[in-house]
Automatic annotation (TrEMBL):
It comes from the Bacteria. This is AAA family ATPase. InterPro entries: Cell-binding_unc_protein, Kinase-like_dom_sf, P-loop_NTPase. It holds the Pfam family AAA_33. Residues 487-510 are annotated as: Disordered.
Length: 510
């Protein structure tokens, strides 16, 4: 660490000598900062010292004056100010450790604990909360999209930017209650604002985090999950998605953050798109290598927006067609919430969900008024979950076109992706499943299933999911539909069979 080094950016200079680093601001003025006078540069260094001591007090040591001697013997004048820092060992930089393949599971967990503790004590208040609203996030997305589109010769094509913008706006527009809850729960903080792997050092006595964003307070006022998502995005970009997930999981555990996984994906995407914009700017300034970086960052943004898109899935079909199995399997794969019509019907009636309540078709608990109340409750509960960022799977027969129209309206109102799956198998297979099914919340029989088939409305918008084969085959097909739902112009016929035959049990088997 003894050798001297000089590093320069467009706004500053860092001199590394021995175990110290000396940082100086250049006398520049840009659209977002002003270091044009000595006083402004000293104030900027003072603010940087104050803010960074929140996370690494033993690294940021103080401010030193550089004086210029005067030939007339008068007292020397201060010519410049320097931020004095403890020099960090380059081989303990997080980005370097990732490249060398060192096992950093423990130190990464320590880092998550440090940041969670920092966020717990971070400044909060009305000015901070103002940057955590849905409107503020929407404006930041729009600004970044507009600025990226305006860059001449940007390596991102219009279709890629449009896809990212559409998914980002759909998430933000439909999640008002989620962002309101984040503010009410004090999750908006004066954070770090620029958490990347190059500025994190994993030392034997614990992690050190450097270089927070100091030139604009509003850019540091953000959701705590947004703050850590920046580093998760950077870890993924550096080829370590498992480390990104590991870090976020640990942070959530230490902070007790109840955010849905969709919000993690969204903030990761936002940070990636900001970096894509910056890479486009570098490319426009003559950095040819930045083109690949821009495309890579945009791909990270796209991937997370698709994963984090909120979905409303209707998994329907007649009794015995396997819809409950499919619904549960999808929920396990994608972390969605399942709402079961069989259970909720009995909850509404004050009956134990596992108790028998058998009756003839459309009699007893299955009379029309009970069924109407059931679907209202299903959609009401789903609406609350969707607005909070949770994907929802509704396990019901969905034989009524009217009920499906109401679900479609809910998806539209909450800007959620609508998935419609109709499970099918042969009449014989369904009847055998109903006979051998253990006691549970469903009371359907083969006779009731036949009567339902006669009365059921056609479901032309559903992907037909044959469940005559193995569970894994059915789930593989359902998974492809789930993943394709974020594509604009999503076509059920691109992912499923065309409807054929008169019987709703007429699946051909796979």
């Amino acid at each position: 660490m003894s050798g001297a080094e000089l590093r320069e950016t467009h706004v500053g200079i860092v001199v590394l000598i021995g175990d110290r680093a000396y940082k100086m601001k250049k006398p520049v003025r840009t659209g977002f900062l002003d270091f044009s006078t000595l006083e402004l540069r000293r104030e900027a260094l003072r603010r940087e010292l104050e803010l960074n001591r929140r996370l690494s007090p033993d690294v940021y040591l103080g401010i030193s004056d550089v004086s210029a001697a005067r030939p007339d013997g008068e007292p020397a004048e201060v010519a410049e100010h320097l931020l004095v820092m403890r020099r960090m060992p380059a081989d303990r930089r997080l980005a370097t450790l990732l490249a060398t393949g060192e096992d950093i599971s423990g130190p990464l967990r320590d880092l998550a604990r440090l940041v969670a503790r920092f966020h717990a004590g971070a400044e909060r208040g009305p000015a901070v909360n103002a940057q955590g609203t849905r409107e503020a996030l929407r404006n930041r997305w729009q600004d970044n999209v507009v600025e990226t589109r305006a860059i001449l010769g940007a390596p991102l094509d219009d279709a890629a930017i449009e896809h990212i913008e559409r998914l980002a706006m759909r998430f933000v527009d439909g999640r008002g209650p989620l962002f309101d809850r984040r503010i009410a729960d004090d999750r908006i903080v004066d954070g770090h604002g620029d958490l990347i792997a190059d500025d994190v050092f994993l030392l034997d006595d614990g992690p050190r985090v450097l270089d927070c964003l100091e030139f604009d307070d509003r850019l540091r006022y953000l959701d705590a999950l947004d703050d850590v998502a920046f580093l998760a995005m950077d870890l993924e970009r550096l080829g370590a998605p498992h480390r990104a997930a590991e870090f976020l999981d640990a942070y959530v555990a230490f902070s007790g953050d109840p955010a849905p996984s969709a919000l993690r994906h969204h903030y990761t995407a936002y940070r990636a798109f900001v970096r894509a914009k910056v890479a486009c700017l570098r490319h426009a300034q003559g950095d040819a290598a930045a083109a690949a970086a821009a495309v890579e960052y945009a791909e990270v943004a796209r991937r997370h927006l698709e994963r984090g898109a909120v979905r409303l899935a209707l998994v329907g079909g007649l009794p015995g067609t396997g819809k409950t199995t499919v619904a549960g399997g999808l929920a396990d794969r994608f972390g969605a919430v399942v709402l079961s019509s069989d259970r909720i019907r009995k909850e509404l009636a004050g009956i134990d969900p596992t108790a028998r309540a058998g009756a003839a078709y459309r009699e007893g608990l299955y009379r029309a008024e009970h069924t109407e109340a059931l679907y209202r409750e299903l959609l009401d509960r789903a609406g609350e979950l969707l607005a909070r960022g949770e994907s929802v799977i509704l396990d019901a027969s969905w034989t009524s076109a009217l009920h499906r129209q109401e679900a479609e309206k809910l998806a539209k109102d909450t800007h959620s992706e609508l998935i419609q799956l109709e499970c099918r198998t042969s009449t014989e297979v369904a009847a055998q499943r109903l006979r051998s099914r253990p006691v549970g919340s469903s009371d359907a029989t083969a006779q009731i299933a036949a009567q339902m088939a006669v009365a059921a409305d056609e479901w032309p918008d559903a992907v037909i999911l044959s469940t005559s084969g193995t569970v894994e085959e059915s789930l593989r097909h359902a998974t492809s539909v789930w993943q394709a739902a974020t594509h604009e112009g999503f076509d059920r016929q691109a992912t499923g069979e065309r409807r054929g035959g008169a019987s709703l049990h007429s699946g051909n088997g796979t």
